[in-house]
């Protein structure tokens, strides 16, 4: 997909390689928060396994959150952290609760960001306990591969239509 094929207003958000956490904090000063939906050890999807280069039987720590601005869900995020990434100081990622993952990633000098994949997604497939008015809408999302000390983790961020209201 060409950059020019991405619809406005999503394009600018999808292509930004900086910290989404910082960007949302600037947009909603004092009114940004993270709502934890779930965090558990589970098997990643086949697509996530391929992205991370892990085996079919491997479990990973999967965390799903809503990023809120003014108390409204603006972004749905899903992070997948393999066992091999959660070593040493990175073990603290198991205890983020309602702290933003981006704050840790973008403050870590050992972090590298890989490629970004972009796709449209029906909001009702997110299973994110969103208000019913989102059910029939389409949102755009991106999946980024990050590396901490050369160890992979994936982060999928879906920009909800409410971000642009």
TrEMBL record:
Keywords, sorted A to Z: Cytoplasm, Lyase, Pyruvate, Ubiquinone biosynthesis
Residues annotated for substrate binding in this entry: 63, 101, 157
Enzyme Commission designation: 4.1.3.40
Catalytic activity line of the entry: chorismate = 4-hydroxybenzoate + pyruvate
Xref: InterPro entries: Chorismate--pyruvate_lyase, Chorismate_lyase_/UTRA_dom_sf
Cellular localization per UniProt: Cytoplasm
Domain of life (superkingdom): Bacteria
Coiled-coil stretches noted in the UniProt entry, renumbered to this chain: none
Pathway: Cofactor biosynthesis; ubiquinone biosynthesis
Cleavable signal peptide: none
One record GO biological process: ubiquinone biosynthetic process
Gene Ontology molecular function: any one: chorismate lyase activity
One cellular component (GO) term of this entry: cytosol
Role according to the record: Removes the pyruvyl group from chorismate, with concomitant aromatization of the ring, to provide 4-hydroxybenzoate (4HB) for the ubiquinone pathway.
Family assignment from sequence similarity: Belongs to the UbiC family.
Listed name of the protein: Probable chorismate pyruvate-lyase
């Amino acid at each position: 997909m060409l950059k020019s094929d991405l619809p406005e207003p999503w394009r600018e958000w999808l292509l930004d390689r900086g910290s989404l956490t910082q960007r949302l904090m600037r947009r909603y000063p004092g009114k940004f928060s993270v709502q934890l939906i779930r965090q558990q050890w589970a098997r990643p999807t086949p697509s996530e396994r391929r992205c991370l280069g892990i085996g079919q039987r491997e479990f990973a720590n999967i965390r799903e959150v809503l990023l809120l601005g003014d108390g409204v869900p603006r972004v749905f995020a899903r992070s997948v952290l393999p066992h091999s990434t959660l070593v040493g100081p990175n073990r603290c990622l198991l205890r983020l609760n309602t702290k933003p993952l981006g704050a840790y990633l973008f403050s870590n000098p050992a972090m590298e960001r890989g490629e970004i994949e972009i796709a449209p997604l029906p909001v009702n497939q997110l299973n994110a306990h969103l208000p019913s008015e989102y059910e029939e809408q389409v949102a755009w999302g991106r999946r980024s591969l990050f590396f901490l000390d050369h160890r992979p983790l994936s982060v999928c961020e879906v920009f909800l239509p409410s971000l642009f209201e």
